[in-house]
TrEMBL record:
BP GO terms, sorted: nucleotide metabolic process
Record-annotated active site: 95 (tele-amp-histidine intermediate)
Pfam families in UniProt: HIT (PF01230)
InterPro entries, A to Z: Histidine_triad_CS (IPR019808), Histidine_triad_HIT (IPR001310), HIT-like (IPR011146), HIT-like_sf (IPR036265)
GO MF term list: catalytic activity
Source species, domain of life: Bacteria
Organism annotation: Nonomuraea turkmeniaca
HIT domain residues: 5-108
Name assigned to this protein: HIT family protein
Motif window: Histidine triad motif: 93-97
């Protein structure tokens, strides 16, 4: 593993609200969510971009499952699934954003306002609802 924030979370060296973890990917709540329940899905192997990921299929199966879980668990109208490659990539480790969406939620274009969880308990409750929906 490389020495980045996401590798530290994967290695258990940094805390995060982990929703799911297996041999392919680790999913956890974004610390600065667009909307509460915003999950990041990262490959367990350190790669910087999508072009660097050798086995795309299993990783995107996890992304697909997380999109379903976020929508179902949070009773969201849908999800916004996105990734950056290098430009605007805040951590140089491939990651996919799975953001719960509802009509008239205020998200427009690529302007991503950020929010915060009110407490650790609130973050844990979002993590638990999404994990249960998996």
């Amino acid at each position: 593993m490389s020495n980045d924030l996401f590798c530290e979370i994967i290695a258990g060296e940094r805390s995060a609200y982990v929703v799911s973890s297996d041999e392919v990917a680790v999913s956890f709540l974004d610390a600065r969510p667009v909307f509460k329940g915003h999950v990041l899905v990262v490959p367990r192997v350190h790669v910087e971009t999508l072009a660097d990921l050798a086995d795309v299929g299993p990783f995107f199966e996890r992304v697909q499952a997380m999109a379903r879980a976020v929508e179902t668990g949070l009773e969201a109208g849908g999800t916004f699934v996105a990734m950056n490659n290098r430009v605007s990539q805040s951590v140089a480790h491939l990651h996919v954003h799975v953001v719960p969406r509802n009509k008239k939620d205020g998200l427009r274009g690529f302007f991503w306002p950020r929010t915060k969880y009110d407490s650790a308990e609130e973050a844990e409750s979002y993590r638990d609802v999404i994990a249960k929906a998996l």
